[in-house]
Design a protein that fits this description.
This protein is of the alpha+beta class. The protein contains four helices and 13 strands. This is Large ribosomal subunit protein bL25.
Length: 201
């Protein structure tokens, strides 16, 4: 999985006044859990653009002013209810021998006969939770829609897994091909025409 580097400044004072001052300076207060003890730091709000405002999944390397580097994943993020500014971010520290759970995007591949026949592809799951060791985290999960006829569903059990596992029930629908209104109308008209032709005979 691709990684993004974020440069941060360690914070000693994490009280409300100090946190407000951090935000007023255009910085985002953050904390990294999962290590021996939580690491509090702040980073420029612009540094998170490639991590937060993207459909892709990334791990993170937090570079602190002390020279310390911590590998992590984004765990939780809080936005302002009105301005949508980032208020706070929680990270979880990665350990080579410890599995983590992370959401990754679904990438649709192949051509569905159902779609080519006029059906509409509906993606029910744009992201899926996977569990794996950090080195085995996938950039995306591939959903091949080649077998899907009109009305078919693609279940999570049909998706390939390498060295990771899905954190969803087996009956989770990833995508499906629904009959479009135009196709439904055409089918109804065809049936009506066939019925009329049968009566004429």
């Amino acid at each position: 999985m691709k990684s993004i580097t974020i440069k941060g400044q360690e914070r000693e004072n994490v009280g409300k006044k100090a946190t407000k001052a951090v935000r007023d300076a255009g910085m985002v207060p953050c904390v990294i859990y999962g290590g021996d003890q939580p690491v509090h730091f702040a980073a420029d709000e612009r540094a998170f653009k490639g991590l937060v405002y993207t459909p892709n999944a990334h791990t993170v390397v937090v570079e602190l002013e002390s020279g310390k580097k911590i590998d992590a994943i984004l765990q939780d993020i809080q936005f302002h209810p009105v301005t949508d500014k980032i208020l706070h971010i929680d990270f979880f520290q990665l350990q080579d021998d410890r599995e983590v759970i992370m959401e990754v995007p679904v990438k649709v591949t192949g051509k569905s006969p159902g779609v080519m026949a006029g059906g509409v592809l509906r993606l029910a799951q744009r992201r899926l939770k996977v569990k794996a060791l950090p080195k085995n985290l996938p950039d995306f999960v591939e959903a091949d829609i080649t077998p899907l006829e009109m009305g078919n569903k693609l279940y999570i059990t049909k998706l390939p897994t390498a060295d990771f596992k899905f954190m969803h029930p087996d009956n989770t629908v990833v995508c499906q091909v629904r009959i479009s209104r135009a196709a439904m109308k055409a089918a109804q008209e065809a049936a009506k025409a066939e019925k009329t032709a049968g009566k004429k005979k």
